[in-house]
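Support reply, case 0932

Customer input (verbatim):
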Amino acid sequence: MAFYDYDLTAQIKAGKHELCEIERIVGFSSLVYRYKELESRIGRSGYGIEVGIKALYLQFHYDLSDRELETRLRFDLGFRWFCGFTVFGETPDHTFFCRFRKLLGTQRVGQLFKAIVKRSKKAGILKSVFRFADATAVIIKQTTWEEQDKALAEGESALNNSNIKKYSADPDARFGCKGKSKFWYGYKGHVSVDMGSGLIERIAATPANVTDQEGFARVCPREGEMVFADKAYCLAKAQTAMKVRGATSAAILKNNMKNKNKDLDRWRSGVRAPFESVFSKFERRARYRGLAKVQLQLFMEAIVHNIKRLVQINPPPLLAGA
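Our regenerated output:
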């Protein structure tokens, strides 16, 4: 550190910046040992794994592009402190963030997500008794006129899930629908939330044409919990997934089902309602192309959601020595 440079810790903590609480509770530095093998491949001296992980978190926490993150990291003192830079220290440019995401990969980001969930469970914050399950649309693009024109020009009668892969820039994306009027092109995010803490415990991305009940198998609890869900989860595939894993169904039944109890389902709807806001902070548009990268996006959005929730709960530090 040069004679004219100085550390920002005292100034940031004195101002009670929200990033102070995030660092205190989560302790990102305790996660770095998991990825020591990446240090030699990370790039220029001074930009290590910890900088990359923290910068990736900031990008999703504040919904920034790579270039916006570069600017904020250069001029925002809170960002500088959080990532370990001094006032005049050199910060990465936007190309570093893209390289780091590719290097870290979806699997390692998933490990970060699971580490936070595991520590929350160990600390007694995540109760694993009642679970909320649902799915949300992740849109690649609003219209597919260009792809349709290409398909028609090659003699196709229509553009649909059987041929969209041939004409789309994203080979994994598909058309999805909810009900009879809502259609989109892209992916679907399947989520299960611990109702005792409000923390996301499992999250999975699928192409949009995978139904809610089919995707539920990827996020179904395995600890014998009770699952509160909408009518999509009262169907056979979701019910089978719950039985196999020992979970109890509290899904709302369709009106034509024999055991339909309107009073019970009205109560279940009220229990579910507060947790539907989990999706309100999620990015409706896919940041990246490809199923693996969309899964990375969902992992990061779940990490941000869980950390914000942990700040509200205000537990002791979770990951020290993890």
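We compared this against your earlier run and they match. Two observations from our side: The radius of gyration is 22 Å. The chain has two domains: 1-105+300-322, 123-286. Please reopen the case if you see a mismatch on your end.
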